[in-house]
């Protein structure tokens, strides 16, 4: 009997878990293909630590073929889905094109940087959604500190050691917290910069940091960051960005060469092209993660609007916690749709959140219990180690080394500004100049 072809598009939290679930429950009856632009699963919550040099980049990646040996990995990005023909067209890593046919499809393409119509932002800001952007930020920040140390113009030196992060959600808050520790470490090696410490600003239009999380987490983060000298500007947004700095909505101009844009994410544009009902850009699915009218298609994670059965009338938020658990349900429901087991609806109560503030500091509320300080730090790191599907010993070793050794103050300069544009559908890949058309790369199966 031929095996059913299951195609999973996207190997992040949701897609990776769906593939792993299928490998465990229906390995002998399904042929699982993973279509993903990279050969690794990226553990996004630790990305700010990569940007700050606390973790080396490969630590937050988990090899897909190494950990999912029963899935066939096709490197590429889905360009379009033909729901009637049950095929997905994709572009491969070297520019060629291919088509994959499926009996069951799981869409788990995640999200990309959210843009706002603010003049100059697309040109001068960088997002924080992929590994190339984290590598770019680490190098860029290091370079600014090095250039500030030798700048003869005091205004230029001040601008270079001023860093602006827009968006005080968990991404922006962690980027500012980790970044500030990095620049402090770099400056301590540059006697020429003393006594002018780097300046970090964290802005948000909301009245508090971490506006989407519990107020106690917000209070802890606010206290830790302000205590370290980070300037938190709430109820503040950016009116314009230029190559020399940013103008805030109160008219103040902040001279800077660094604008990190962490205002949130929007679903991957692929789902728009399906022509199916969307909810704020996310593909609307039912509580079984199925696409209404297409019993062979499932969607989960950031790209899907999944009814939140714990909060009727709402959709589950875009978090790793939900994506990971939805991936499991998607895998089980795909297997059930092929006659193995029964379909189940997705229901999950938030287990709390952790925000790593760098060093030994964190804000966390596991199971609703608010924690701060080193205890929260230990819980946060323990949570990440438990949640990582691989590389745990390497991550723990990096943390140990970081606790006892100084950070490496070097910039490799491998990711340039133009290769990580803010406006991109592929934050997981660094852009390359001038794509050359290539012959077909894949077959229709
Ligand atoms: C810096 C940062 C920190 C975060 N920290 C936390 C945290 O502490 N806790 C938490 O709960 N959440 C956190 N999140 C949010 C969390 O990471 C996301 O909600 C989660 O990754 C969503 O999972 P997903 O599987 O939907 O998408 P992803 O994990 O992003 O995976 C999507 C996958 O699809 C691939 N893909 C995209 N487009 C295509 C295409 N066209 N064709 C093929 N493949 C494609 C991508 O390469 C990727 O592998 C953080 C996010 C960021 C950016």
TrEMBL record:
The keyword Transmembrane helix does not apply. The keyword DNA repair does not apply. InterPro entries: FAD/NAD-bd_sf, FAD/NAD-binding_dom, NDH-2. It comes from the Bacteria. Transmembrane segments: none annotated. Keywords: FAD, Flavoprotein, NAD, Oxidoreductase. Residues 5-327 form the FAD/NAD(P)-binding domain. Residues 426-445 are annotated as: Disordered. Belongs to the NADH dehydrogenase family. This is NAD(P)/FAD-dependent oxidoreductase. It comes from Streptomyces kunmingensis.
